[in-house]
Amino acid sequence: MPELLNPEAIQTLLMEIPNWELEGDMISRTVEFPSFLEAVDAVNNIAREAEAMDHHPDIDIRWRTVRLALSTHSAGGLTTLDFQLAKKLDQLLPS
Q: Most CB contacts within 10 A, which of 46, 47, 60, 65?
């Protein structure tokens, strides 16, 4: 099982993913797309990337807005896996 990150490591890693914010024991990002279909297409791409890493975000779709939340549930908080997936998802998402 991945190890939980300490608060200092979390703050350091957050600097590498400026579009994400810390919310308790998770990191989150919200993205608005031009249309509902583009939001769903993005979620499908996110799902493929997450499945490849066997690490799955919580995803909330509200019309054109997609909110992602990452936390390693089996570890009870944030691990390096969350930040690795966030970096990969940033490559798929608009800035």
A: 46
